[in-house]
# Entry
Amino acid sequence: MLLAPLDRPAYADVRREARSLYWRGWGITDIVDELERLGVRGEDGKPVPRPTIASWAKREKWKEAPPLRAAEESVLVRYQMLVAKDEKSGKDFKEIDLLGRQIERFERCRRYRDSGNEADLNPKVANRNAGPKKAKRPNLIDADMAAQLKAAFEEECFGYQGTWWANANQRTRFIQKSRQIGATWYFAREALIDALETGRNQIFLSASRRQAEIFRRYIIEFVFRVTGITLKGEHVLLDRGDDEDGKPLERPTLFFLGANYRTAQGEHGNFYYDECFWAQDFERIDEVASGMASQKRYRETYFSTPSSTGHGAYRKWSGEWFNEGKPKKDWTKIEAYSADDLRDGVLCADGIWRQRVTIEDAAGRSRWRFSTVAASMPTTNGAISIPMACARSAMARWRSVTIRRKARRAMMPRSS
# Structure
C-alpha cells in the first residue's frame, strides 16, 4: 500500500512521518522505500538511511507505545492533511468534523488517565454533579427495609410473644408478667413494625424517662442490625419513603415519655405503658395518657410486673375500676377467669384483653433458660402474682423511716 504524493515543503518532519507509518503497520524497509518514493529528504538533503530510522524506533520505543498514542498520531496526521488542502469537498468537511471530535475524545482519555476522575472522561457526569445536591432524608426506611424488619421480628419472636402479636389489634391489652421475659424488647419491635406498616404514631410511657429510653435503644439497635440505618432524634420521626405516585407517605413518630401526668399528654398514637404497677399516681396518669389513644384507630397496651393489690393499676387489672357505678350483674371480675384463660389470654367483658405470663410459661415457650427459683412469684388467693413479702418489708421500712423523721422534727427547737 502506497501513500498518495502530497505537496510538501522542502523540509518536512521526517521522524514524525516515519513514526506515523510505523504505527500504521509499516516495516522499517518499507518506510525507507516510501520516503524515497515521496522524495522525502533529511536536513542534509539526502535520503534517510535505514539505520537512522531503525535507531529512532529503538530509542523512542515505537513498538512499546500505548495504542492510544498510536491512534492519536494517525488521526492527527489525517486531520492535518485534510486541513492543508486548498479545495475541500463536502466529504472532506465531514471527515474533518469527525476527526476533530475524535481528537477531543483522545484528550479526555488522557486527562482521565492522569486524574482518574470519571468527569474528565464523561462531561455528563460533571453536569450531573454540578447542580445542587439533594439532602439525604433522615431515618428513611423504605418498603424493602420494612419487609426485612418484619421478617426478622417474626422470626425472632418467642412462643408467648407470638400470642401478643396475634392479639396486636385488640383495642386494649393488659399483660401481667414475670420479670426479664423480654416484654420491653418485644413491644419496642412490635410498635416499630406497626408504625412502618400503618403510619401510626407510637407512644412509650414508662415509670421513668430513663426506663422509656430502653425502648429507644432496642429500636435503634434492631434497625441498625437488620438494615444498617442509624435512627436519630430524641423522639424518632420515621420516613417511610414515597408512594407509587412519588408522594411522601405518612411519617409516624416514636415518642418516649416518663410517667408524669403534667407532661404525658398532647401526643396521639398507640400507647404502651411499661411497668404501670410501679408508677406513682397511676389513676391520674392513666386518665391523661389513655386520651392519647382515644381515636378508634389507636391501641392501648399495659404490661408490668405486679406490685400490690393496693396499687391503682390493680383496680384496672381486676376490673374494679370498670365496675364503678355499674350494676353488680354487669361487673367484670378477674376471679371469674380461670388460670388457663389468663395463661392463653382472654378478652374480658370490659373489652380489655388480659393475660398473665409467669416465668414458667415463658420458659416453656421460648429458647431462653430461666432460673425459676430466683424469679418465681408467689400468688395471693390466685388473683395476682405478687412478691408480697418484699412489698410488706419495703412498706415497713418506709413507715419506720417516716416515724423517725417526724420524731426528729418534733424535737428540734422552734425559731422565735
Remarks:
- The chain has 18 helices and ten strands.
- The chain has two domains: 14-130, 143-386.
